Amino acid sequence: MTRGICKNRVGERYGSVTVTSRAPNDRSNNARWLVKCDCGNEVTLLANNLKRTKFCGKGCELYTAHKRNDVTGQRFGRLIAVEAVGKKGRHTEWFFNCDCGNEYKGVSTHVISGSVKSCGCLGIQSRIKHGKSHTREYKTERYQAYTNAKRRATPTGVQDREVLEIYKNARNLTKETGVLHEVDHKIPLQGEFVSGLHVAANLQILTRHQNRKKSRSYEI
Ligand SMILES: [Zn+2]
Ligand SMILES: [Zn+2]
Predict the structure, then answer these.
(1) Does residue 104 form part of some domain?
(2) 161 vs 168: CA distance, rounded Å
């Protein structure tokens, strides 16, 4: 039972909700948090229930969509569902955008269950053994910081169509040219002085080479 002072959970993600601020304790003095759901709803949840939270409630649009097996716009690890592309046996195949800029086509159930978390790039990185910067812990920590920054920088909480379109263009360019293209934030999300937004206007397509050369700094 959590009473009185408890760990600051602002910014943490549980399923589709992000903790925004502390809410007054309930009548039995249990800690509660105000959370914002990707569907737009804001609700108050008991701190003890956060870990089990997937949606803001029974009335959640995303929950309804989830029950219909529609995962459009939802994030699973590095993957964001774009659209259903067809059937594979009894299952529905989906197109996903991976944070690395690649796309992934696969059965949604594998992604929802968590057995697939990326286009494959996560597996490659976690197999690299040499050097501390390649340890799973290090990668996960840095990646987590990056995705949190991206989430904070996404005004609506859900990626809009324009953003998805840019990722699609990058994939097409990769396909057409054979050179790996990535989507880059012109103003970095985790810049030292200014932080950019995860919106279409702040995105540009670069080749992987150009992108690696670009530093995290941004001239103000
Ligand atoms: Zn919701
Ligand atoms: Zn990837």
Answers:
(1) no
(2) 10
Domain assignment present for residue 23? The answer is yes
Dump pLDDT digits (tens) for 102-145.
999 998 888 888 889 899 888 765 554 445 555 565 666 667 77
In a domain, 41, yes or no: yes
Distance 177 CA to ligand 1 centre (A): 40
Q: Is residue 45 part of a domain?
A: yes
Q: Determine the Cα–Cα distance for residues 101 and 61; give it in Å rounded to an integer.
A: 27
Distance 18 CA to ligand 1 centre (A): 10
Residue 220 confidence (pLDDT):
47
Query: How far, in Å, is the centroid of ligand 2 from the Cα of 116?
Result: 11
CA of 117 from ligand 2 middle (Å) equals: 9
Element (H, E) at 200: none
List the shell of residues around ion ligand 1, using CB closer than 5 Å: 37, 39, 41, 55-56, 60
The whole-angstrom separation of Cα 109 and Cα 82 is 15
Q: Which residues of 179-213 are buried (b: 16+ CB within 10 A; e: fewer)?
A: ebbbbbbebbbeeeeebbbbbeebbebbbeeebee
Residue 55's domain comprises 13-61
Looking at the structure of the chain, the number of domains it has is: 1
